[in-house]
Structure formats: structure tokens, C-alpha cells
Design a protein that fits this description.
Elements: H1 2-9, H2 11-39
Transmembrane segments: 12-35
Keywords: Membrane, Transmembrane, Transmembrane helix
Organism: Thalassotalea fonticola
């Protein structure tokens, strides 16, 4: 449990997790965006 509290209080781990979440959110947005564009193409 000590390692978990150390990881959650380490700023480098938090910035890395935040960056990863941001990249995954952008990738998800573009996948949904392009799928909608492909499906609405007439």
C-alpha cells in the first residue's frame, strides 16, 4: 500500500497519466469523428 500512495503523490506519474488520458481522448474523438463522416457520406 505504501507504493500505491507513493505513486499517487508523485507528480511525474500524475502528469504521465494525465497525458495518456489526453492522448486517448483525442484518439477516441478522431475515431468517432471519422466514423460519423464515413457513415454520413452520401
Amino acid at each position: 500500500m505504501n507504493n500505491l500512495s507513493f505513486l499517487l503523490s508523485d507528480p511525474i506519474v500524475l502528469f504521465s497519466a494525465g497525458g495518456l488520458v489526453t492522448v486517448l481522448a483525442i484518439c477516441t474523438f478522431y475515431v468517432v469523428f471519422f466514423l460519423k463522416k464515413i457513415n454520413n457520406n452520401e
